[in-house]
Fold this sequence. Notes:
The protein is built from 12 helices and 24 strands. The chain is of the alpha+beta class. The strands form 5 sheets. Strands 4, 5, 6, 7, 8, 9, 10, 11 and 12 form a 9-stranded mixed β-sheet that branches. The protein has a 5-stranded mixed β-sheet with strand order 15-13-21-20-19, with no helix packed on it. Helix 9 packs antiparallel against helix 10.
Amino acid sequence: MYRWYANSQCCYAYLHDLDTPVLPTKRDAMSSSGGWPEFIAPREVLFMHENWDRIGDKRSLASTLHGITQVQKHILRRGQILRDGMSSNRPCAAQIISWAADRKTTREEDRAYSLLGLLGVNMSILYGEGKEAFHRIQVEIIRISTDHSLFAWDPEGRIRRPGSVLADDPSYFRDCHDVVEMEPNKFIRNIKQDATKAAFTYSKSSGRHHDLALGNVDKSLRTFTVTNGGIQIWLPLTPYRDSPDVFRATLACHKDGMPMTVDFAAYKSNYYRYFGAIGPPKETSEFRQLYLASQDETLRDFTLVYNTIPFCGFSRCGTFPRPISGNSFALSATNDLMVVVYANHGTNARFAVAFGHYFGQEWAHIICEQPPRNGIWNRWQDFARQVCDQMQGVAPEHARHMAEACLSKPSLFYTKHGHFPRSVSAARVICSSLRRSSDCTIMVDIVQCSGCCAPIQWKALLVGPFYIVTCSSDYLLLPDWR
């Protein structure tokens, strides 16, 4: 379709819902009036309102069209830039996709298919695939280019969707209209400059570290590909001081003259897009081979079970950041954290349990609040929000510790407790999950503290047909559900 428009001598854009010979100025005013290929590809475009009176052509209206579509004026005036294939004059993928950020179509797939010609991608049309169409387009871009801007979506942090490094929708690129791809040679020169200013190492797949090998960097940067283990790519990484599993990656593109960076979290053998890192990154960087996750994990259902909670005078105050109905809730890549607050007003004790779903691994953590000196608690919502903010940056670490405690059995069992200040009691969680299903059952109860409140290491031992899960002096005997 793009080629059909590009080969035309003149195209007429009939705006049936416009009753004045003046184009609107709002960005979403023309979101359903055709698509940007119809404006960009032809050499000549005449705009007509509902009475078929001429409004102007795309060259004379370039400034107005730029304000509506965010398409650069020189591209509107000279569409041949996009006909040059993957040349250096071509806008980067992120910038092109941003033009369709506000486009509305009857079929979800058409929103993605309208970008095929603009991006120079050839692939089959499969109506009914839904958002998978946009996912396939991104994979095809990776196959034919080395454009890092494809990973630079949501630069302002408005959506904050962790998980797959590929975007779910063109709207994720809304703020990328001024992103510019950096030539590999320039990117390599910048890396060389950084290498002379700070510690910089080169990590091979074997895990050995060497001084920065500039020849290897040059070769590695020019290729990345899609594999069954993820998107294989080499990038400069800088770990965060307070989040050892979270890294800041520098991409070969810039925005407003500044190099673009994104955060990745390491989990098992893959790296995932991540938001919520705490503290500044370290000064030491490393050039590393990564396998970026291109698929999101599935939904995880949690069910809460109570044993001694009501008998010990505790009740549930509420949940944050959203309410739940009953004792069940679901977590996913976009809703990956839930905080539940419990309180005993008789003993002036309060604690929160944070539940998380980090790229396929469930985790839980207990935070017991210090009682106020004046005896008056602040709102439980404020306590829950504080816990939620605190957990955002340490979720990768909690998930990693929980995964390490597992012996790769189909059934996972964990126990963990948090000690109440100036008390012999403790809050405890026991988490059991069937890895073959999407369900995770968690028991929250109150126990007598053993007196040893050092950091707890989870252990899981298989004895006969049962698992014995030990945590300090606590143990739990559960059936082997294999």
